[in-house]
Amino acid sequence: MEQGGGSMGTRLEARLIEATGEAPSPRSFHRSVLVDELFVVWGGNNNDTSVYTLNISTCHWTKFDIQPAPNPRDTYAACLCGNKFIVFGGINSNRVLDDLWSLDLSELQSNPKWEQIEFSRDSPTPSGRFGHQIVGFENRLYLFGGAQNNNLCNNAWCFGMATRTWTELARSGDVPAPRVDFAATVVRDAVYVSGGLGADHNALGDSWRFQIHEQKWYRIPDLDCQPSVRLGHVAATVEGRMFLLGGVGQRPISTMHCLDTDSKPTPVLPPAYIAPWSIHALEVATPKDKYLDNQPNSTTSVKGVGPPLPRFSHSSTISSSLGEIYIFGGIVDGKPTNSTWTVRISQALDLSPEQGGNTVGVKMTAGLVETTGDAPSPRGLHQGVLNGYQLVVWGGIPSHNRSSGLAQDNSVYVLNTSSNKWSKRDIRPAPTARFWHAACLCGDKLMVFGGAESYDQVLNDLWSLDLTKLDQHNFTWERVEVANGSPTPAKRGGHAMVTYQDKLYVFGGFTGKGSLNDMWCFDLTTRVWTELKSSGDIPTPRAFFASTLVDDVIYVSGGVGKGAKELGDIYSFKLNEQIWYKFPDLELQPSAMWGHSLVAHEGRVFSIGGTRNHKEPNDMVDIHCLNTDLIEYPKGGGDVIIKRPKSMK
């Protein structure tokens, strides 16, 4: 595969099996298993109780009418346990079932017989359910999830085939939320669960592992290339890998994902020339002893440095002329850093299958900037901008702990990117020290709006600093006064601000009590604030998200929403039309996160860093890239249109 920065890809080929014999009628919500060379299909939404087998060597279907048989059903659970096809629960004519059946597939040609398994007298019994999953392991069945009428389950049960006894397993570890219509499979001694439909009727994109011998749940962290939210998909195991196929999110899903349970997920990626999103691993040019300690196989950071990724609450800004992203500060390995890295963007080989198209790949190479001078202290939640050869950093705090959440540094720090030397400018008067603020360049001026002096004190003041005068003695901050009669946005932090045609646009943020989804425009000529009456698919309230501007479109990614829930959705706002658009869930888009950054370069948006939970290990080491040339916005609103390059039409 061309994307992934050196990771080994998996090539899959699909072919239509032209079979003979008596095939099953068209159906859905059925189940199937594969034993040796027999592919076995039973049930579904057509009241058919016959068993169908496809010999994968001869490509011939055979129908078996075995009576008595289980009642017809759909959305039931099935698995293999040895050579036995196991069926539990499901729905029959709106009746939820709780029966357990077994069919010995080794006797199909001689004496096929369904057996309804009777439970031991003193055994507890799981309630009837549908949309659940069951797997077989060492002559035991493991049942999870599903729905009991209107109630969703997240309990797990074990059934001993020898003792014929059910046991409800203790809820140990990080137990998944209740769900139906998810995928599950067993890999070695673990049950893997992915996606489904949650209690709030929203599709899920999380993945979990139940370690059978420990009887303990573990959440699989959000990783690059993981599947998007979906339900109704299936899972299969091949040589230690879990494959996910199909399902539906906001639309039917046509790609396959592969989780290598021995290492990191190994994706089967759609080609870059089809997918708007692509994923790129960083190639780090700097020797490891510059940023990691000298122990063998260590991932521990050298104090104050650390790798370029993962990190969060950093700043990223780009030099369009050089195609270099400057990353400064943030939280690495749970601690603030003041390291500076550059990420060089270069074009790779043509990715079109004909080798003659006009689509190129992206290569990203990171290098540590070894600086001198009076550098900023380690920090996060600051802002940085790049103006010519000057990287300007302002604000931030040294920790995410509430006990130390008081901003103290309001000096301006400037890195000369030609000499790699930092200088500190103490400019008075100055804005109060703060974090969670928004900043952008408007011409040669650094604009700062809002932010927080502490976790309990947010702001709504606007300041300007002329960066062309930084080398002079008369440079000053200017408090931008608002015209008389002008409304003013609410105080906030964790918001975003961009500049477009001599106007500032501010979106979202956190007031100290809740999140916002309002959009404001400040006219730098008239000095009047206007709250925009936006239309379209307006984002839910959020803070601590990432945003950037491409042409007249603001892109908004992720953040933290109501109930401190991490968000993974993508929105865009057309400034000239004042219309919001929500992106459909697309393959390879970033997972739910906050504390990341977006930068734009030549029509591409790069998502860098971030975290889902800053108290847990951070695995977000790759960079996601959105090719905005493949996005079209219908006039007047509606769903965004995903285009294909002309060479692929």
UniProtKB/TrEMBL annotation:
Protein name per the record: Tip elongation aberrant protein 1
Keywords, alphabetical: Kelch repeat, Repeat
SMART domains documented for this protein: Kelch
Highest taxon of the lineage: Eukaryota
Pfam hit, one: Kelch_KLHDC2_KLHL20_DRC7
Coiled-coil ranges from the UniProt annotation: none
InterPro entries for the chain: Gal_Oxase/kelch_b-propeller, Kelch-typ_b-propeller, Kelch_1, Rab9_kelch_effector
